[in-house]
Amino acid sequence: MSRISPGQSDFHPTGHREGGAHFDLTAAALEHSHTRLRTAVRPALGLWTLLVLGCGGLLVSAANAGADDSIDRATLDTWSAPYRGWHYWPDHVVPARPVIGSITNLLGTDVPTVYQVPGSDKYFMSFIGFDGRGYQSFVAESDDLIHWGNYRLAMGYGPAGEFDHGGRVIGAFLYESYDIKAPRILKRRDGKFWTLYGAYPRQGGYELRPGYEGVAVSDDGLVWRRAKDEPVLSVYDPDCGTWEKDCIYQPWLVEHRGRFFNFYNAAEGGIEQMGIAFSTDLLNWMRYPANPVVRNRAGGYDAQFCSDGKVFRDGDHWTMFYFGVGRGGAHIMIAFSRDLVHWTAHSEPLYRAGGHPGGLDQQYAHKIALVFNPKHETFYMFYNAVPGGGEVTGGRGIGLLTSKPVALERKPAP
Hints:
globular, 4-stranded antiparallel β-sheet, 25 strands, mainly beta
């Protein structure tokens, strides 16, 4: 989960954070138990070439920082237009304080991700609940993407003294397809479903630093367990850059041409930006040396944070929905790429904090999940809608935007 700490109108998390960010081009050699990944970074004809040797090989070329890989404004406007002007659902679809079995002390819900399990027509949503100690991941189910219920624990706290004791935030799932209109069906690999997850080592507060990322598996898509007992990304890794040295936050997983991309946000002081890591097996990762790939823009709607990117294939390009913090709020933003590496963000938010007519996101509008319902030819964008006020978490719950109006039909949750 990304940091818009409750009760902080200046959008800084607990503790003092300051400073800018830059990327580190130092070559790093990463040794793993069953494979060796070596990075070689060298300038050649204005390009940096990142060559990963081992596990079948992965080749990514990244343009020199001086080159212009930007997408022009007219194209940004055209590509972003289908995702603007959507319709707000009046209420949270997952409330701030759901009762989940014996768990009755949740203070807020956050970080939705929608998926389906092969062979089932039901929709599932992973989300986290904050109970004052830290985060646990839960799952809800729905028949219509509006009414959610049957809440259950998906992945609780890790063991004491370990990297995920303070919380586990699942949701970076391995899908069968990342096409923007494809069903969000979980994909089996080696007989299991997979997710990356955000993790915190300490309990007792809201995202206590440092953060890590882990990898988990599931037999049924509902209950998750570690696939590896060490973090897959850590601030103590030898290839950790200066821009991410203080905390690593939430991942997003994409599989493309048999390789895995982890889009993740991280912090240096009070600044968050997004980078990429690569893998061929989901267990061992190496960072892109030209990180961060989505950066803050001075004076913009993402001047402080560029966080929680969600990436989908969208025709002949890739679309990323992320949230920015700047100009007094947290907003839903959009960026585009032709190659998954070079990104250009639109300067105007898709949806700003305070856009909900009922005030449901008066304080923050951020952290989306997107799914297309072919039955109604409608996109459903779930997001963390925070009204603000006296509650510990600002009353945060899961809100909804739809690309077409959806009939207001009240019925019991499943």
